[in-house]
Amino acid sequence: MASIIKNQILKHLSRFVKNLSSDKISLSTFKGEGELTNLELDEIVLTDLLALPSWMKLTHATCNKACIRIPWTKLKSVPILLSLDSVKIRVEACEELRQGGPSPQNAFPTSAGKYGFVNKVIDGITATVNSVEITFQSQAFESKVQISRIRLESQSPNWKKVDLQGTRLKCMERGETLVFKAMEWQTLRLEARSTSDRNLAPLRLLTNQAKAHIVIKKKLSDCQVLGCRLSLLLDDLLWVLTDSQILAALHFINSISGLIKQSTELTQRFKAARKLESLPEYQAQLSQTSALKRDIRTDAARHFDTFDVKETSYHFLCEKIDLHFCDDPGSGRSNHEDLKDGGAFQVSLMQVLLDFYPYHLAKGERRSWPRYTPDNALAQWLTNSLNSFRIALIEAISASSMHSPLARTQNNPLPSGGDTNPVKKTVTDQFGKLMSTCLVLKIQDLRLFKVTTSSKQTVPQPFLSSYIDRPKDLQTVHAEFTWFYYPGEICFPLPSPKVFAHLYPFQVHLDTCTILWLNCFISNLQNAMSKEIVEPAEPDYMDVRVELIMPKVVFENKKLYPSQKERPQSLHFQVSRLVLSNYRSNETGSLHELTQCLELLQRGDLAYGTDFPSKDHDVPLIAEKFILHAEGRDKIRQPTKINGGSFHEIAPYLTKDMLNTEPRDVWYVFMDPFWADFRVETKRKKNSSEQNTSKIPKDSDRDLSLMLYPFIDSLPVSAWLHLHEEPSSKLSSSLNSDTPNGETVPKTQKSIKAIFSANGIASLQLTHYQYLFLMRMIEAISELSLYLTYDLEQIIGQQIYNNLVTVLGYIPTTELSLLFPPSVPGKQESPSMELDSSAMMESSSGENDETHGEKENTWKLIEQERNQKPCFAPENLTIPSVSMSLSSSPVSNVPSMESLRSSFSQVKHGLSNLAVTFNKVGGISTPDSEVASQWSNISSDSSENNFVPIESLDDEFCRSPLPSDVGVDAAVEVATEVVEDNRSTPSPSFSFGNQMLRAENDNLVGVLTIRLDNVEVAQEAKGTTSKLKFQCRSVSLRECTGMAWNEFQTKFATRNRKWANQVTSTLGSPTQKRVIKMRLSQRIDVEKFKEVMHSDETKSTVAGLRTPECPRVNLTDRPGAESPLRKAIIDSTIAFLDGRVDLRNEDQFTLHMSSTIALADFIEDEICPTPFPIQLEVIGANAELIEDRPSVNITSPGPVPLKFSVPNLPITRDKYGVFHIGYKESLVPPGTSQSASGCRNESCQKDSGGAQQSHKDQQQPSKSELDLILADFEKLQRQLQLVQQRNTELESELQDTQNLKMMILQLQEQVVKLQEEKSNRLNYLR
């Protein structure tokens, strides 16, 4: 009996095992046990049996011991146990694709008979392996994988250990069965090293406690595998990588990537033909029925459908992945003092999910995909893209068959029921077979930490992280990659691949050391890989769309200023929604939008002009690619002309990339909208009610009060980018002057050219301390830019000085409001704008919990009225926008409409408390959010025209409609019976900083607003040389020496609403002269900077500055005059400012003397600036200074205005800081020849209107009169525009008056209702 069984085993296993003999087999027949030892497997047979990819082959496989246990009496319920002791496998990468790979013959295996008892027993086998060692070898890489304690067993559909009969699901109606297998292992160890470069460190990876779930779908008729779902599940993964290890891995991927791509495409085509027949969507398409309408009659079929594998898929899920990237031992790659010993960068990924679907029908649904929401933005994009591609394909083919013999005989139109054209029908059927490969990446949370150095062991601080709590089903990162193909060997036009990424709210904390370290780390890898690639491949043709929701960039100042309470600690740049794409559509930038942007830029002189501030040798700021792209003349290939009437005739023209004619190298960026806020943190005390009721953000753990100060109001911005590499001979004249030390430039030049335009008013406000923050931020950015170039020079070489970056932008109107302490006679002046948080806390500490809770709810309503734009604080704190709300008291006496029109903002804040008070006193438990939403409907109809824009400031605008001793609540009569329980509660005043900073209404601020129309700005940077050019068409000043703080913030938030009615008047004429022209040239001498930084004096200073509390010396952590980095940058910087201000056609400027003095104090820096040469010319300036300060003499007759006129005033400053007024000295900017400077002087002399020109005007009165008439005409035009603007404002004010009347009537009705309700409740209580 045993010998017969041994012979049968030898007969069947001899095909797979080499040198198998009976002495290697040990059997116990009745016990059902057997053992085989020292097995050497046949490599060729196993390679075909395991269906290994054609780019690899099995060279050696052994097993020292194999045991089997068969429960003869319980085969239906107990699985067969197969135990392997040690398995060793050796695999090699082929130099060319292995013969005998996937083919049409082996893609359809022969039938194995019906699925019966033997198949059930084999599918239920449980296998265990003590250890597996897999060695992989290639020409450039070798690796070893060791896996221990492997167990493969059958489990239930819910992945629980059950009887063997519960591990399968069968559906007789479909003729299919599902087999559920679970595999787990204890440890996995990976070690790999490069064979081409032995100096590279080996790559190591260690994982613990992993498992995999496998679902196999088979046909009952022939046991054919229809699909499979493989899920790999990991708990935590920690991986430490150095740049040499990553470089070794990149070498390995580069060596086999070509073969893998060829093998995958070959296997995919043949397997897809079989997979296509099993897809329900395709079967429904053939039968013209929907797969969703399939009739499921039995409960077993419904249960089967729940766990059914609709298509083959592979999934990877890991709860947490920690990646640590660090420098190799030794000195760091960056030249920065803080990174000279290297650094480490940590990346933490939470709940990483990777799904791969290799055989998905392109037009099929995705509802069967696990953990996937099919109704998303990508699904709509793919549907529209496929429909557009199908229509374009049919139109291209139909155009060729219009004149075919078949088409000419069809005199009658086609019936509406279908299309009888055989060519069109064949194309439609073929397009229905389009398959796709989909890769979906989801990351629940993403955290990148700042670089840590060996100088101090600190807790890693976030560099990139999410800052808003999201639902669990909303991931931080959602990315999808889709490629298309046809099954079989079919050559047919394919849609372009799609790349889609959706990133939800995250913030980036700019850190100098982190950015420099990442720059060196990535550049070093790219430089090393570029040496391996002889001919770089062209970028793949694909459609890319990236959407970022609420991204935020934070610039922090680490130094604290305790004596400057209003000094910002950080600046937040935020975008509500950012879209980045490289294809054209209405949502992602159309050619019409690009044309409009180009037309706006071409109105100015910076785009192509050679007059000042441009020069002859400046590079073109608008890439020729933009113009060709807007006109549709930059196609990568001409459309294919198809000739033929039948499908066989046109088949040779149907290539895969036939319709890929549009370029994909022009990128569109849209920010809707963009804004910026300063953040100020002040220490405060926490009372018990605040700790219990208020929602405190994470930053409050440091006992800080958070306030956000607007800097840039919300503004939509669109930009276009083009990355290109071209020969540098076209720009040799400009490059030779900018390359340091006269070094030769490389033969090629990489350029990035960008253009942008803003759709609205760029409203900015700035205080003195915010100005100081910006000055320190500019110094830190200069440090970052210098070291980026310095490090790239060391890694890449001198060719970095040839790279070109240009930016050209247009802003219709820019308004900058400078805020300073007020100076209003007869009113109490605040000496400073500092935040007195201690007084605020003392006033609120005595309130009870009820009062505090009411105040908190009231402030929630007021905070919702701010700015009409989303504004998020760090972490989870949200500061909503300002909307209409109710007052703390009913309105019984209606003021005059003129008074209401001027005090509308005060009435709004008074109205905001009324609804809350009524709800509190009347007992109505309406949430504050509902109250705000009810009144937001009222405000949405009338708030757009409620306020006069800031540019129309005048005396009436500055005057408060109420006396200085009357608060906001006094403007409306208070019903004492309504607020009888809260008489002692002070009404809170508005503050834009999310804190009640002031409880009085007479806190004033001085405002000086500078308005610039038709602003053009350009930046050109090559290496360490930069040129900044600026010009505008008109400039005007508006001032208000005293304005309520909250009133100014309300008007600041409504500037953009008025701009829509003034678009036509702000564009101006292309021939209109520019009023202000500026050109700032700057170059940093890198060699001098190196010399200064390497000097003994600088090294000793740096060593003395390092402390255990602050070991870093960069300008973000250590700003100030004592910084050696700042001194080195200033000493090696050569700058020159050249400007011209022509105010001959502008109105007279009128300023108060207090504002002039405050302006001088405003621009005073805390650090003594280093002078640089300036050449400025002022022409035709007329100004009037009004003395508003009290006179020290009692005999003074009163202030007398000071008027002056400047026909022509040259102003120059040399490098020593000495000003020369009226003396025109030729100052040659760096990198500019003397001839160019002479040309500049000639243009200035030609356009000047000085004393010599006035003398000539006396000799030629006709020309002078003509100039005066022209100036009067232009002045009348501007006055006409002002009248039109005033008419528009009056119309909006009339509408506001009507809306206000309606609102007051509604309020009165509500007051009556509430009083009736109150009386009813009081009667009920009695």
UniProtKB/TrEMBL annotation:
Record flagged with keyword Coiled coil: yes
Polar residues biased stretches: 1231-1242
Domain of life: Eukaryota
Keyword terms, alphabetized: Coiled coil
Transmembrane segments: none
A Pfam family annotated for this UniProt entry: BLTP3A_B
Stretches assigned to coiled coil: 1266-1317
Annotated region described as Disordered, given as residue ranges: 825-853, 1229-1264
Protein name as catalogued: UHRF1-binding protein 1-like
Species: Allacma fusca
